[in-house]
Please model this.
Amino acid sequence: MATDDADGIYGKLLSLLDERGAAYRVIEHASEGNSEAVSLLRGHPLGQAAKCIVTMVKVGKKEKHFVLVVVPGDKRVDLAAVKALYGGSYASFASADIAEDLAKSPSGTILPFSFDDRLELIVDPALLVHPEMYFNAGRLDRSLALSTADFRSVAEPRVEPVSAD
Model:
């Protein structure tokens, strides 16, 4: 993990959202990092949860791309689709250490935003059909409900079909 200060990335996100005038609500809840369990605590359908997974795609023998893939909570990451987007030869989930370093937060709290130039953000369009999306905000005990339109405007994700049932 890049920082031991969980509020560091949380504070950075809130500052960014405030600066950009994004519509969001902070939701405090029991500590939980599993999409299904935390969606129950937050009281919304699982499909509105942003499941954030850091992946690694190898292109050739020496080139690697790290990709923050965001899919609805009721879907899984389609690694073959991510690999195909880069013309890669191999795709996998990044190790926890690498994921936490690039995302700047612990597993289970990874934001659907990239604050590291080495980490490209790709979001599945199935998540963007909802007016609001939910995610842990760099902490296990705090989530955000964020306007999906504002998410798109602020995060500027690449939108690609990268989920599977």
Q: What stands out?
A: Confidence is low (pLDDT under 50) at residues 1-6. Residues 82 and 114 are 17 Å apart (CA to CA). DSSP finds five helices and ten strands in the chain. The longest helix spans residues 6-19.
